[in-house]
Amino acid sequence: MAEFFATPIGVLVLLVLEALAILVPLLIGVAYATYAERKILAAIQLRKGPNVVGWFGLLQAFADAGKMLMKETIIPTGANRVLFLLAPMITFTLAMIAWAVIPVNDGWAVAKINVGVLYLFAISSLGVYGIIIAGWASNSKYAFLGALRSAAQMVSYEVSIGFVIVSVLLCVGSLNLNDIVLAQRHIWFCIPLLPMFVVFFISALAETNRSPFDLPEGESEIVAGFFVEYSAMAFALFFLGEYANMFLMSAMTSILFLGGWLAPFGIAPFTWLPGPIWFILKIMLCMFVFIWVRGTFPRYRYDQLMRLGWKVFLPLSLFWLVLTAGFLMATGWLPQGAA
Amino acid sequence: MITMIAFYVFAAILVASATLVVSARNPVHSVLFLILAFFNAAGLFLLNGAEFLAMILVIVYVGAVAVLFLFVVMMLDVNFVELREGVQRYAPIGATVGLVLFVELLMVIGGWRFAPAMSTLRASPTQANVQNTAALGDVLYTHNVLLFQLAGLVLLVAMIGAIVLTLRDRSVSRRQVIARQVARSAALSLEMVPMALNAGTPATSFRRPLPAPVAHEAPVAHHGEEH
User: Fold this and answer.
1) Could you say which of A121, A122, A148 has the minimum Cβ distance to residue B71?
2) Whole-structure pTM value
3) Prediction ipTM score
4) Residues with Cβ < 8 Å from A109, sequence gap 6 or more?
5) Of A50, B51, B52, B203, which sits most exposed with the smallest number of CB within 10 A?
6) Which fold has domain B1-86?
């Protein structure tokens, strides 16, 4: 078996298997995230949520998938056909390819690249293209308004995400995601960098267009925003992409601030669980907070959203970056890095 | 072998999409082809082992600059017929400018002399065991930090200049000042009035209809301000 995986075809087969090993659990997770969201929102609003299909409604996600597959894909007259169909594919693909660099355990990543965190940042900043192309290609004013809102919003919040990532990198001395997690062996970064953790999480909400920053969708003003013209599988791809992006942002939060696969405190009862389980638990915790926030806060007004991004988060993250750098320099704890 | 195939794929798509940027009829398609060209350039950087530059190219150009570009182009109302007429009329001038530039470039490159030791340096710009992120950081932040800071200052001046040129503080627009809203207390905005039967509302000490545009001086005067 080992010899086969050393041959060129074997390497290819191994790559495909590795990709499947991360994508299949992800897609199942996405399916159940939709179910979890409906159940948790229902609990917050004192309802029952889906409870008809399967035990406790557990098969609801598959019933929805079946419904989406059966429906007709409608392409509006006057839409740009190629771009209209390309947009959901871009959204979905971008949400999937980012997972190539996520380390699930020490060294367990499909691609162990040196600039892993930059790759993640690049991919998450590309997410806006699916939305903006969808809005333009639909040839509809609501979709276009949603796309414009989304473009401005995602570009604004990326700036503070960038500064947060840089202040984490200062504490690590490496761009490799594996090193970032290993640097948190003694203390998770969410404790010394608590304000950055909060800024990152709120920016992650804005970056994934989740409530209270879901203005690109804004049902009450612009119907459904950028995907108002989409139906059937094209709509489903947007839907899956949105949830996969939420998982990605949760994974980034746990790698950058919650110690990735590391057990809390690193002592006996916690270390009995293997690393990947801890990583999944942390992702699930972040996902729960995503949904909890949706059930709790009303939507931001657009100028308030911009104010928060540019006038609050940007100065705060810039200040904290300088503070972190100065502190590390003064105490001589600045990591020397790979050089 | 795989590297060579990858190089030709990236290079071919890069050249093809760069051509399409110029020749596409729809300006939105042009910007999208430009983005494709950026991607393939990032791929070529990766093949050369410059992974930091590749990622920065994607983050800065594709993730930020091209988004704003697309944003603007989508909102422009371009008349294609008029645009094509213009191309025919201005083609000779454009060709002349292009030709002059081409000749100038030829003269510059033709007269360029490399120092003899240059070719030995080109083979390995960084030491083999140093990651190129660390090597770039060393050059920018350790050896040339003054130049780097000055470049940053030039950009800052340009940014402030752009804001100064476009900022107009119109006195008609009513801005939300969150600090002022938060600073309001119940005593400043509420008044208990004894109401006599059939006597109507007595005048209060608060000005009821919104004060006229000159409202910026008086902090308390904003009664009906948007919340």
Assistant:
1) A148
2) 0.80
3) 0.80
4) A100, A101, A102, A103, A116, A177, A178
5) B203
6) Four Helix Bundle (Hemerythrin (Met), subunit A) (1.20.120)
